[in-house]
Design brief:
With 197 residues, this protein is mainly β. The chain has a single domain, classed as Beta Barrel (Porin). Helix content is 0%, strand content 49%. It is built from no helices and eleven strands. The chain has strands at 4-6, 47-63, 69-71, 76-82, 85-90, 96-101, 106-115, 120-133, 136-149, 154-167, 193-195. It is globular and about 45 Å long. The model is unreliable at 1-19 and 171-190 (pLDDT under 50).
Length: 197
């Protein structure tokens, strides 16, 4: 059975509360809007970052099971920044989160995949913050909402993740392109959460 990668990353779950967290919202094409460039300059935040931790805050599935949703710890994310424009993509996904980044490291991005061939529809909306250490971007935190409709699942997910800087991205890399030789073998979904057995 092929595992699917679903991108969701959001706020921390409150353990011991008297009520469950609110259900995640169902995203549609209307939630994916053009995001203007932010105030950042240069390519200070560009590089490869590895997901080190994360948590599913809320999940609701019409098809499939939320118990199979998990953070893709270990996944490498490539961040490409050109001035106030940012793109974040993962090695196991063709979904790209594109948007704006400000000089303080805060960012907002969104993206979609609609593929009639694989019967896949995915929407992602995310916000995040780069963390500075010794004058350099050392990691980032991201909160994300996802709606993923695949042959095996139809879920809305909200969660969060942290990714640690691991090195400079390959010069000239285009994170909006699908990884080579991934055609039918690509794992559907975003870069942070997975669905599998």
């Amino acid at each position: 059975m092929r595992a699917g990668v679903v991108g969701a990353i959001s706020l921390f779950a409150l353990i011991g509360c008297l009520s469950d967290p609110p259900a995640p919202r169902r995203l549609t094409v209307d939630d994916i809007t053009a995001i203007p460039p932010g105030t950042a300059t240069g390519s200070y935040f560009s590089g490869d970052y590895q997901i080190t931790s994360g948590q599913v805050e809320a999940c609701s599935c019409r098809v499939g099971n939320c118990a199979t949703v998990r953070v893709q710890v270990g996944t490498i994310l490539t961040v490409a920044q050109t001035a106030g424009v940012i793109q974040i993509g993962g090695t196991n996904s063709t979904e790209i989160c594109s948007g704006g980044v400000d000089a303080d490291g805060s960012f907002h991005c969104n993206g979609q995949v609609i593929d009639a061939v694989t019967n896949t529809t995915e929407f992602v909306v995310a916000t995040g913050q780069f963390v500075f250490s010794n004058g350099a971007a050392s990691s980032f935190h991201q909160s994300e909402e996802i709606t993923a409709i695949l042959p095996m699942i139809d879920c809305d997910i909200r969660g969060n993740m942290t990714a640690q800087f691991v090195g400079a991205a390959f010069l000239g890399a285009n994170v909006s392109a699908a990884p080579p030789d991934h055609g039918d073998t690509r794992l559907p979904g975003s870069f942070a959460f997975g669905v599998g057995p």
